[in-house]
Design goal:
Strand order of the largest sheet: 3-2-1-4-5-16-15-12-8-6-7
Number of strands: 16
Strand content: 5-15%
Radius of gyration: 27 Å
Shape: globular
Oligomer: single chain
Length: 756
């Protein structure tokens, strides 16, 4: 798919330059198809919706039918079944009118898919049985394979497993004959599913392992980390099934090591793109790259910034012009495509990237040897549709537990987070305690006896990424206090995967610490009404400031924030108190106008062991690239500056920090990508060189955070504790103060990465 995209994006500007609108429509449609198959459904829709009017304008009815069908397919994948049917029923008569029998077969098959998903199995079979002879008559073996697979799936769901297997066994050789690897992987998965339901578990295991082998192979052919993640998200149910199957085998053969294989499968299924990015980060893949290519990259970045501002100007105007917005969107799409293509070209042209071997996720013995010690336990979660699992790994053993379904855990986890953060509930201890007990019962209670007072490395899954584990309470044993938070007995660290920590240690473990100790950027200037600039500002500046920060404004909107954000007065107090703990020669306080994007990106932060940002953070859970940190937007002369440190800027920082502290709201949040975890600021800073990152899981209280941070640094400096241990000690101190005892004030912060 990656290679296909490269050729399509070379074709598109040539189609446009020669005025070949029909050809342009075809290429746009094909780019949409590639993105759809890589899991980027919204991106696919954007391309299809550019293609469709061109198809119509050039009178290409066959092409129009194709694109309508493809749009229907995206809506089907997005769960909008009625919308999918609307597009299919526009496509079908055009297919017939143009005599496109192969296309007709495809659309009939797709309509069958929708009815199958809607539970109308007989109706689905009717459409499939109309599609199948047409696929055969037109020699479309890939289409025939897909329909046979789908018929098999219906029979499987109707409980006729043997009949299902007959159809799958007709489909599989056809997919292989035409080299449709992803189709082959799907059918192998379906065969495994049917065999498992027949209680033929060992045969099912062989088939799902063959399916995963194909997926792993296809995955490595995608050079773009974003597309690799989105593709991997589309196949997560293969891993989920594999893990569940292994754990079912473990029940009947507890001595055969199936639980070990399941843990290792869980490790293979998560944060793989992050693992590869971290592996790549040490390689300087831009070395030896054609300077023209690097210049192109820079130029496209600048154009993207400009087009983003234009776009928001257009959509924010009192009377938005749809034609203008469409033109901007089209240009923006083309630029984003170009930028991704350049990134891919850099990777594929880089001798250093070529020399990298794919980092392999750790096995159980490697986790025990490289990650754990006698005082540290790994808790790894995998949430599944019917059952979830927890593996508890010590340096000498592994125990596994079956937990309730994903939906049960999600319901309890959301209720707990709400109780801790909601202004109505967070100060009512009984509400928090009840919600905590409910969740603990599901995810901790089974393993409670094993935890003792050990350090806990937690690899969460799904909704658990957003869960404040330190505030969870274990059910009391006889004679003990009730409602004692987990943090009182355990130091807690979260990790995207166990393998991530191994790479961080490999990258940064023996690095010489920088000469300076602490750089703290705090209390930036956000607003033209700020007392610090009122005297220096001209009447026209506020409007210009607004225009200059349109990119930021958009992210604020996406994060439900208003522009300009409020000043955070306690961040200054926080910075001054923390800095007073360090010798002045080794620390830098960077306030006001100097707490800027320019300061953050000028390279000097590489000289500090600890980098601390005390300001607003923005997490965008739809478009992670719009996440970032808000710095000063005005300089000391009243000139306007871009004050938004975006995720892409963070990836390009060169740090040598042992610790980055994001004393900001929601800095640990981001897009929760299935199989990848949170795509947000943490991974940006880890890529940039941070060994560990302290982040928050919700919009934290300004004053409470200042108090917590002061205690955190005191514990590190005066008690000589490692950051994770220091955070725990600070949180426990906060609990003992009446004003701050609610978990809302202290449980938001978590350390991700190295615990030593």
């Amino acid at each position: 798919k990656q290679k296909a995209l490269e050729y399509y994006s070379q074709s598109l500007p040539l189609r446009r330059a020669t005025g070949d609108r029909g050809g342009e429509a075809t290429t746009l449609n094909n780019i949409g198809l590639a993105y759809s198959e890589l899991g980027e459904k919204q991106k696919a829709l954007e391309y299809y919706s550019q293609s469709l009017p061109l198809r119509r304008a050039t009178g290409d009815r066959g092409g129009e039918a194709d694109t309508l069908n493809n749009i229907g397919s995206v809506y089907d994948d997005l769960g909008e079944k009625q919308k999918a049917l609307e597009y299919y029923s526009q496509s079908l008569p055009l297919r017939r009118a143009t005599g496109d029998r192969g296309g007709e077969a495809t659309t009939l098959n797709n309509i069958g898919n929708v009815y199958d998903d809607l539970g109308e199995k007989q109706k689905a079979l009717e459409y499939y049985s109309q599609s199948l002879p047409l696929s055969r008559a037109t020699g479309d073996r890939a289409g025939e394979a897909a329909t046979l697979n789908n018929i098999g799936s219906v029979y499987s769901e109707l409980g006729e497993k043997q009949k299902a297997l007959e159809y799958y066994s007709q489909s599989l050789p056809l997919s292989r004959a035409v080299g449709n690897r992803s189709g082959e992987a799907v059918t192998l998965f379906q065969i495994a599913f049917a065999k498992r339901d027949q209680n033929n578990l060992t045969e099912a295991l062989k088939d799902i392992e063959s399916s995963l082998k194909i997926i792993e192979n296809l995955r490595t052919k995608i050079a773009s980390p974003e597309l690799r993640s989105s593709y991997f998200a589309t196949v997560q149910y293969h891993y989920e099934f594999y893990i569940d199957l292994l754990m079912q085998l473990h029940k009947t053969h507890p001595q055969s090591g199936y639980d070990t294989k399941a843990l290792e499968a869980s490790e293979r299924s998560r944060a793989r793109s992050l693992l590869e990015l971290l592996f790549e980060s040490n390689a300087n893949i831009r070395e030896g790259i054609d300077p023209d290519l690097l210049q192109q990259e820079k130029s496209v970045q600048q154009q993207l910034d400009a087009i983003e501002k234009q776009r928001i100007e257009a959509i924010s105007s009192p009377n938005p012009n749809p034609t203008q917005i469409n033109e901007i969107d089209s240009r923006r799409l083309s630029l984003l495509q170009q930028y991704q293509q350049i990134q891919t070209q850099i990777r594929t042209a880089s001798p250093r990237y070529a020399a990298l071997t794919q980092p392999q996720p750790l096995t159980l013995p490697e986790i025990q040897k490289q990650i754990l010690d006698d005082n540290t336990i790994l808790l790894q979660y995998s949430l599944g549709k019917y059952r979830s699992y927890l593996w508890v790994v010590t340096s000498t053993g592994l125990t596994s537990y079956e937990l309730p379904s994903q939906i049960d855990i999600e319901t309890a986890a959301v209720a707990f987070r709400t109780a801790v953060t909601s202004p109505i509930q967070r100060d009512i201890p009984q509400k928090v305690a009840q919600a905590s007990a409910n969740l603990s019962q599901l995810i901790l209670q089974p393993a409670a006896a094993q935890l003792a007072n050990k350090r806990l490395l937690i690899v969460p899954d799904g909704v658990l990424h957003y869960t404040p584990f330190p505030a969870l309470t274990l059910p009391p044993t006889a004679g003990e206090n009730t409602n004692v938070p987990l943090i009182t007995s355990h130091e807690i660290i979260t990790l995207p995967s166990a393998s991530t920590l191994a790479i961080l240690r490999q990258n940064y473990g023996d690095r010489k610490p920088p000469g300076q100790t602490l750089a703290i950027l705090a209390d930036p200037v956000f607003s033209p009404d700020d007392d610090r600039i009122k005297e220096k500002i001209t009447p026209a500046t506020p409007e210009k400031l607004e225009a200059n920060n349109l990119g930021l404004n958009r992210s604020l909107r996406a994060s439900n924030r208003q522009w300009p954000p409020e000043r955070l007065p306690f961040t200054r107090q926080e910075a001054q108190t923390i800095s007073s703990l360090f010798p002045s020669a080794s620390s830098s306080q960077i306030f006001d106008f100097d707490a800027s994007r320019t300061t953050a990106t000028d390279g000097k932060l590489a000289n500090y062991q600890i980098v601390h940002f005390a300001t607003h953070g923005l997490a965008n859970n739809k478009n992670p690239e719009l996440s970032g940190i808000v710095m000063s937007t005005v300089d000391d002369k009243g000139n306007l500056v871009n004050g938004f440190l975006r995720l892409t800027d963070i990836f390009n920082l060169k740090l040598a920090a042992n610790l980055v502290v994001l004393s900001a709201c929601q800095s640990g949040m981001g897009q929760n990508v299935k199989g990848e975890g949170i795509v947000g600021l943490t991974r940006g800073f880890m890529y940039a060189g941070a060994q560990r990152v302290a982040v928050s899981l919700w919009s934290v209280d300004d004053e409470g955070t200042a108090v917590l941070m002061q205690k955190f640094y005191q514990q590190m400096l005066q008690q000589k504790l490692a950051p994770a241990a220091a955070l725990r000690a600070a949180q426990m101190e906060m609990m003992r103060i009446e004003k701050w005892k609610s978990p809302y004030y202290w449980a938001a912060f978590t350390i991700q990465g190295e615990w030593k």
